[in-house]
Predict the 3D structure of the following.
Amino acid sequence: MAFKVGLLGLGTVGLGTVEILSDPAQRHPLVQELVIHKVGVRSLDKPRDPRIPKEILTTDLESIVTDPDIDIVIEVMGGLEPARSLMLKAIQHKKHVVTANKAAIAKFGDEIFTAATEAGVHVLLEAAVGGGIPVIAPIKQSLCSNRIRTVTGIINGTTNYILTRMQLEGGDFAEILADAQKLGYAEADPTADVDGLDAADKIAILASLAFGGRIKLPEVYCEGIRHVSAIEIGYAEKLGFVIKLLAIAKRKASEEELEVRVHPTLVPKAHPLASVNDVYNAILIEGDPVGQVMFFGRGAGAGPTASAVVADVLNIAALLKTDLSELAGQPPILDPLIACAHQHYCAIAPMSDLYTRFYARFLTRDYPGVIGKIGTCFGDHEVSLESVVQAGFRDGAAEIVVVTHEVQEGNFRNALKEIEEMKEIEKVASVLRVL
């Protein structure tokens, strides 16, 4: 039995997918049963890989998602439209969908999965988070007996590369970003990466799967790395931390609300995520009773992402091969371990309710008792300090660095407002969360 595949997009990931499907030797035997039936491209004039017959190329993308001969549609175009519309059209025509499009899933997942459930088809998205790192299938299947407590990830390679370079070289954000753009690690417009938007899309997807409910993307707190300077990198080093852009989804045992957030964070050097450097990604999951498990690998690129795409295609092909429900004249039954069937939205806790540790750096006038006044103000707002360091002078001002114990963010922010208004304070130079 051969399963016919329609491929939307022939960029980096699309070509990687073709390479796998065109070379089934020493792979799972089911790869031999997958046939690329049509490939949607923007132009027919562009030179193509000789393994792709010209007769299967088309610029009519809708003809792929409506073709009655195609069993599975692979969407690797990226972007919101026409990707969303094409996926919905494919679902309407009872086709299973595999996608690597985290932005479309994060924004339109409720619409897409509702349509898929009604149509009795699967939408699989392993490649949408973490490239080739298997994390979505393990959350759905291998860890499904657990109560997931926390998902913490370094899930954007561009920002991790920049922060690693800043840590190793002591350079500033702007110059290393420019270098990363020259090397191809950062886009010409790096906004989605450096402002945390890409990571927010991904943690919204992971939180939805881990906690069994839909996530409203605008409710995900998002803070990027533009304000992280070499000064903060240096102080973090002295205090025993490294700075990483973390994406965190968390639920406490006694609460229904989730924390879902993206922000630069001081990570203790002994923490498993502290040694994840360069363009690598890692996702640390804490569950009951499994404890901690971590998934690590390359989070992007043709090979890793195509690996995840084809794995999803194989999962669907296996279901099609063994599903006898349609042959018996019954409606198709979706596998509950891989289908995204939940309907309700998760309640997201406001950031002011978050409990975490903080790092703050103040530039102060060198007045007697300034450290005491800062400490008293924090104490008045129930903010306990773990350490206070007067680090010297910078630009004519005394520099004071504090690290708090775990405190409520709302209390910390209220204290910070009062401290900013003190005559002794020239500037709150930096504030970062601490893992």
About this structure: The chain has a mean pLDDT of 91. The chain has 13 helices and 17 strands. Residues 302-322 form the longest helix (21 residues). The radius of gyration is 24 Å.
